Amino acid sequence: MASIDVKQLTKTVGQLIKFLNPRNRDIVSRRFGLKSGTKETLESIGKSYGITRERVRQIEEFALAQLTKAAAESRDLAKFVSAARELVAKEGGVIRERALFKLVSGSEKDTVANASLVFALTLDRELVRLSENDHYHALWARDARTLDAFREQVSSLVRALREKDSVVTSAQLTSLAQDKGLSALDGGSFSERSMAVMTSVCKDLGSNIFGQMGLTDWSQIRPKGVRDKAYLVIRQSGAPQHFSQIAKLINAAKFDAKKVNVQTVHNELIKDNRFVLVGRGMYALAEWGYKSGTVKDVLVDILKTHGKPLPRADLITKVAAVRMVKENTILLNLQDSLTFVRDENGHYHLRKK
Fold this sequence. Notes:
By secondary structure, the chain is mainly alpha-helical. The chain folds into 4 domains: 6-91 and 106-128, Orthogonal Bundle (Arc Repressor Mutant, subunit A); 144-215, Orthogonal Bundle (Arc Repressor Mutant, subunit A); 226-288; 295-350, Arc Repressor Mutant, subunit A, CATH 1.10.10. Helix content is 54%, strand content 10%. The radius of gyration is 31 Å and the shape is elongated.
């Protein structure tokens, strides 16, 4: 594969824009960041010249049209563009712009060399650029058809995740894509590498600190407060935790620079129906089947759900499955004769009212 001499690329681009008159050259340079590496807006350039942003856009468009023919005749520029095309092809046909910068210049930052690369590829017009928006980071695609296919794949995968409504591992996400009939952009089988490209470019796909994949608008991927963070660490632990331990787990996970205190965790979780206080200070996830309320409430619910009398051993087992309480506490509650009746077989049922 041909390499790109970024110094020579910058020099070639600098020579190319000398075909423009001074004002047009300045506007194009500032729009692409060819002097400083930082792009300027139509509005800021317009203010400096005392013209509208629309007029700046027209000048930019006219200047690029002027340079297209000269660019097509530049062997040096063609060499750089060809090398960039090879890099995009090697990545499967789509690459995040900053990843392309890293491959070409060794830096993902906005530099003059990287600005020169974007300028050269813009003039060539074969590779297609998608500007950054709410759903995608800036990217380059092999051609318009590849870009359309890629975006359709992303949409399909996002829909599949919304249907699943659950975080997954990277391997599971790849399998989900394969189940939906997705293939690599080059026609091969969809792989974890295909997924890596997709997640690097699409802002709607992301991972949490535990490496679980999902949609970035999910609290399990981008937790926003103590409750979301508590949900993640309890779920990751796989077992009920005391609120003091939950605080330690949140702080150890280092979601951000914020430290949580023990009492805040208790105060927040008690108000959230995702969590169930299953013992003295012990919280579990409601999705695990744990029940809220007193032990008496749980016993009543079990007997109502079952629909017929149950022996004491069964009641103890069923309560223990949804609450972290001692056996004696369950037996003590069963002595409430206003609520529970023990028949001649030693089975319990609810007293009729």
